Amino acid sequence: MITLQEALSLPKEDILHIRRELKKKIVEQKELGAYVEQLRDLPISEYGEGIPIAIKDNIQVQNWNVTCGSKILQGYIAPYNATVIDKLLASGLAPFGRTNMDEFAMGSSTETSIYGKTCNPHNFKRVPGGSSGGSAAAVASGLAIAALGSDTGGSIRQPAAFCGCVGLKPTYGKVSRYGLGAYSSSLDQIGPITQNVQDASILYDIIAGYEPKDSTSLNALHVSTADKLDNQKKQTIAVIENYLQEASEPVRIAMENAIKALKDAGHTIIYKNLTNSKYDIATYYVIAAAEASANLSRYDGVRYGFRAEGANLKDMFVKTRSEGFGEEVKRRILLGTFVLSSGYYDAYYIKAQKARHLIKSQFEEILSIADVIFAPVTPSTAFEFGAKSDPLEMYLQDIYTISVNLAGLPAISLPIGKDINKLPIGAQFIGPAYGEQAILDAAASLEKILK
Amino acid sequence: MKIDNDLLCKLENLAALQIAKDKRAGVIEQLSEIVAFVENLNELDLDLQEPTFTILAGGTPLRKDIPSTDLHVRDTILEHAPKRDNGYFVVPKIIE
């Protein structure tokens, strides 16, 4: 597949040709299930005629049926464009196709989507990761030049790692969330999933920047990264030693090879530890569930989407939500309701907020002596469908990604090797707040060495 | 902390949700397991940490409360609403 960088230099006729070819391939390879349109036998959703970019099903595109992979949003038509979509259009890019996702981005395998499963392009018996599994599978299989996803606890980086592509989770506040279906508002960020680091940098530059409609948007001029991308820059890289030791053998070996390659290329490697990641998971599931329970209270069947008939108003609310939400979404709403409810609020929610401070300060400490942090993205390579049927076991998939969201930091996932089954292994660089350039440079350096 | 059926009923009521009869035992077990895992946080010494959290330095800014109406948004939402009449959303009767 042509890269985004290459596509940007092509004349309009060539882009139109690429769009036609893509449409054909998307229909031919519909068993992959990367796009909602593939799973539902629908014509690909389009808006404009620019360079096609696949869009996760939780980002608003005007007049598209944007559904967050949920039954409760069936029938909803987005009345406006998300800020990132307007930014794509302004740069000659165009939303093209809705990519499959875990319902309301709650999952790590894309298995909770109402539309059915998305396969991992490297092995159709395996999951693509999640929640942006459709976006990663589309890019990895050559069915998209690039895609947008969203990352609340690893939902861009983990599927990018499982599918063998590059995924960037920007610093909280760098990319407007206006028009992103809200899951956990203090953690959510939109970011690119691409074929290489250069493209991630280009697409990040296109979507980043201040925007008053998102009150958490950073009010500062965006400094472009793609034109300054430097794969020769030598940096001090902190390896998280305890993460490395906990990871499965293939991940650990690939990481050790990458660390050696980075050292040989002239980077300075230091070793650091972070607190046991079980505290990150515990903190995340309190905060994310609490925010989800508030955000998802808007789905009541009154104004948009699915409505179940009820004997009275309260009955209609309950039936709509009980029939419209899937199991995992209901579980998280109930958990969030619990941690916010009177009598439990201090013991769970306030405690998690305090733990969040601790997690953030640990990163700050390491990043005061290192330029970037190097860590695994996932404990193992892509698992088989149905392998993680216990919710807690699924939550533990996010042990290496979740703390980055809690601390609001930028991180980029890139492929560093494969296991014996030819399944991709990813690693991530984590940077200080607004340190996208440092992690992109580090990723570009590693990408070049490993080629 | 054990989640029991009484607590589940209370949470369902607060969240306007209902868990089906055949799923209740499973949900109680899963929620209890997750809450027990969350209790790992009790091992941390958090007394000196701030109880509120914001990612943005200085917190979120205040802005002027200026009304803004996009008629296109209003009309599109109404056009696709589950039930509507003459510019209103229709819901089941509230007062008999």
Question: Which chains share the greatest interface?
Answer: A-B, 71 and 56 residues
Instruction: Give the overall silhouette of chain A.
Output: globular
Nearest-integer average pLDDT of chain A: 97
Class based on secondary structure composition and strand pairing of chain A: alpha/beta
- The total of beta strands of chain A comes to 10
Tally of extended strands of chain B?
2
Structural class of chain B, by secondary structure, is mainly alpha
Strands of the biggest beta sheet of chain B: in what spatial order? Answer: 1-2
Give the topology string of chain A: H per helix, E per strand.
HHHEHEHEHEEHEHHEHHHHEHHEEH
- Gross geometry of chain B: flat
Distance separating the two termini of chain A:
17 Å
Primary descriptors:
heterodimer; A: 451 residues; alpha/beta; ten-stranded mixed sheet; 16 helices; 10 strands; B: 96 residues; mainly alpha; two-stranded antiparallel ribbon; 4% strand; flat
Write the layout of secondary structure elements.
The complex is a heterodimer of chains A (about 450) and B (about 100).
Chain A: H1 4-7, H2 12-28, H3 36-40, E1 51-56, H4 83-90, E2 93-99, H5 133-140, E3 147-151, H6 157-163, E4 166-169, E5 189-194, H7 197-207, E6 236-240, H8 241-246, H9 249-264, E7 268-272, H10 278-295, H11 313-324, H12 327-340, H13 345-367, E8 372-376, H14 391-395, H15 402-407, E9 411-418, E10 424-430, H16 436-450
Parallel strand pairs in A: 1-2, 1-3, 6-7, 6-8
Antiparallel strand pairs in A: 3-5, 4-5, 4-9, 8-10, 9-10
Helix pairs in contact in A: 5-6, 7-16, 10-12, 10-13
Chain B: H1 5-15, H2 24-38, H3 71-80, E1 84-85, E2 88-89
Antiparallel strand pairs in B: 1-2
Account of the 3D structure:
The complex is a heterodimer of chains A (451) and B (96). Chain A is α/β, with parallel strands linked by helices and 451 residues long. Chain A is built from 16 helices and 10 strands. In chain A, strand 9 (411-418) and strand 10 (424-430) form a beta hairpin. The longest helix of chain A is centred in the last third of the chain and has 23 residues, at 345-367. Chain A is globular. The mean pLDDT of chain A is 97. Chain B has 96 residues and is mainly alpha-helical. In chain B, strands 1-2 form a two-stranded antiparallel ribbon. The mean pLDDT of chain B is 92. At the A-B interface, helix 10, helix 11, helix 12, helix 13 and helix 14 of A face helix 1, helix 2 and helix 3 of B.
